[in-house]
Please model this.
Amino acid sequence: MTAFKRLALLAGLAGVSVVLTACPVLTAFPGGNPSGSDGGPDGSVSCNPMTEECTCVEDEECGDTRFFLCNRTTNLCQPACRTKADCSAEVRGEYALDYCSGNLGCECDEGSCVAALCSADSDCGANNACRNGACVPAPDAATAQTCQITPDFAIVKSGQPVQFWVSFWSADQAPVVLKSGIEWTAQGMRVTNPQANGATATFTGGSAGAAESAVQVKAGNATCTAKVVTLDATVPAGKLRVTTIDELTGRPVTGGTILLSNASDGSQVAVALMDSSGSTLLDNPGGKVTVSAFHTDYGYLTVANYDTSGSRDLLLALRRNQGDKLGGATGKLTDQPKTPNVHAGIAGMSIPGAVTDLNLTQLLGFTVPTDVKIGTQINEPDVPLPAGVYLGFSQEAPIKDEVAAMGLAGVCTAASGVSDVEAAIKDGTCGTRTEWVLAGDVPLGELPIDAVTNGLDNIDFGKVLSRILPIFKRFTSTVKRDVEFKLVPKTDVDNDDTGEVDPALIKAQLTKQDLPFEGLKLGFAFAAKVPSLPKFHDKYADGVIILGGADVPGRGVVPLGLAAGVNTQLPVDDKTDSQADLPSPGMVLVRMAPTHSGIEGAQYKLVAVAASLQSVNDASAGLALSAVFHNVKDNKLVFDPKGEDPVEIDHPFLGFPENAKYNFTSDPQPGLAPRTFKFSSPPSISGATVIRIQFTDADDHRWQVITDVASANAGVVIPPPPGTFADRSFRTGSTTGERSSLLVQALKLENAGTAVSFKDFVELNGTNMDRIGQYLVAFSVIDYGRPQISWITPAHDNDTVPPGGTVKLSVKNFKVGSTMTDDGVVKVSFANGPSACIDVTISNDPSMGKGELSATLPAGCEGAGIEMTATLYNGQGQPIAPAVSATRTVNIQP
Model:
């Protein structure tokens, strides 16, 4: 499944989960009144919905239709409304609802009176606090028994700011969110001048020196500290300082190599082992240089074309190879609803750092072969459901009641089960994240089953996105703020035969954590005004997915809701289509829960992702996404389902980083010097300040190259790795093999409304790259993949093909054609055959971009054991480099 299909699965889980099983649509009560109690001819009813559970088919059977309606899903009478006032005791009189009389009253949510929720302490008054969506007395500081500072280890530069946050627990290890009573102090001289604001404080780097406890927090009976290393404010003359840290723990990264290379040609200037302190000094050659950090356990990181006239003080935040070690939690979703509906959910772990580094496989987990049986009509064995998916039906035993949520390495305590906590943190064998669940009780008839009747590879995404919105009102949010876990090498849990993760082996290693199916409702409905959609290949994006969540310090982004909008209405323009009850195009209705279960106070965020679906029908087009990030005003949610005062996302979408080219070889190629990345023509990415170029090899190990936009337009040389380090721009690390996949991102970074430049981003200062999640306001990405070619028919070696017959090929990430905008052609050559087996050139794609090609075998080309090799050629008539080909040995015989 492609990355976008996985993203659509996250947004439309209920629909896709059920469609995976090809469920039929149930029919409910085809005729008559299931209750057997008809309203009398005078409109009277024999059941009082205020005191009884009244079954119904028509609204009139529920009494006064101003205040009660028939729920067609449950066939039960329920309190009804048309406006918020209809839920008040003043209007309802004898039909007043007890649950609307306390706390914040009720909202009228799609015709139903539902208890209103709070989303921030400011909703509740001076002496109260908003906890789990309700106003309650503010917790006393005395309830805090233990605490943890984030980050618990920091490297800071003297005179520069550094921000910390704190989390608390009660005596029974339940999360405690304090409104007051938190005391921040500086210990020693590593930091000074604390500027506190409740659960967060900013300090200033003080006297230089090695790590020591420097930040202290006290509240109630809880006391905790964080260690700080402070570096000199200035770098020695003639030197370049490179500090390498683990992005998610703040610890120094050692044991690797720093390479200093010439920015113009990639030649090696200096090589040094990473210093044990994490800060390595190199001689500064002056001018522009390229600095790279290589470590086998981490993604490689290169800062290209850095101007040494700056501070000469770089901070490189490295992220561990995300797939090398696996860990997380597994358990059941308990107490599923006793209804005849589909029970669908998805679980995951919070997303730390930047979503630009998101590994979707890790987000949704490994796949679990599941026998899906629904009633007597569906019985599908071994359906590959993602580990994070929950699926049940009716009141039968759940189809898949266990979920697994995979998390990234980070910090932990002894509760994770490790014996040496600091060693485990440094080795990447433990972590702590927030587990989340979005689950819903959904009538089968509401699911977009017809959108995937042709299978997952032919999903009608327009239908999926346009019809999942009403489903979100049925979902709830469950959160477990602190889930600690161990990580084990992937090789320990791989299936020996397939090399894939073995569900039984990995589950045995995961933390056991059951969670309830039903949580806090997605009680806030509001309109988000989406910016004008960007164009990819001159076509507007096909739709928008909005993730509503909270950025929890030390844990990452926790999803709390979802939304979707499509762009299909003709003529297609730069606005999402109009949605019911919203006043204009370009507005998307968002359903979201408030922060709860210990994450209260975290910053609410909306992430709007504009997606192009061209890659679905065009095999040469890469996956293209553009996203904007919005911090919700005043950090509180509103209930505004009519969009009367929409939340306006205040940053535009970036254009896409199109026209990217890279010469993987050490020889010049047309228009490109050796090992050079370049935009062949400048893309429309106004506002972007940083370009990230990423290679991913066969082991899912990454090499990221960071540079500025001007350098990417002019050309950036990527140096070869030093010594024995594998070249991750190639799939197997060898420069004689296939190329790795290529992905290009454009980033827009801001700090308090001021642009963060490439220089600001890579230097050690107050905008360090380990805090990229704080400064990222927009990004766009194209996954260029890698050119591939394969045989469709003949499907196997030694197959027989008739003389003059047709052979078929599949080409991906390569545009076949002979025009200037095409990548090149396919040539089929023959070996071990007669001279009549002349080369065949395929110079057009008759499948309208799907990459399904065909060729007719040359007349007279016959024989046994003939080798056919299909090779991709560039527009200059040469095989693309590195070469991409596929060979099939066949018998061409009658």
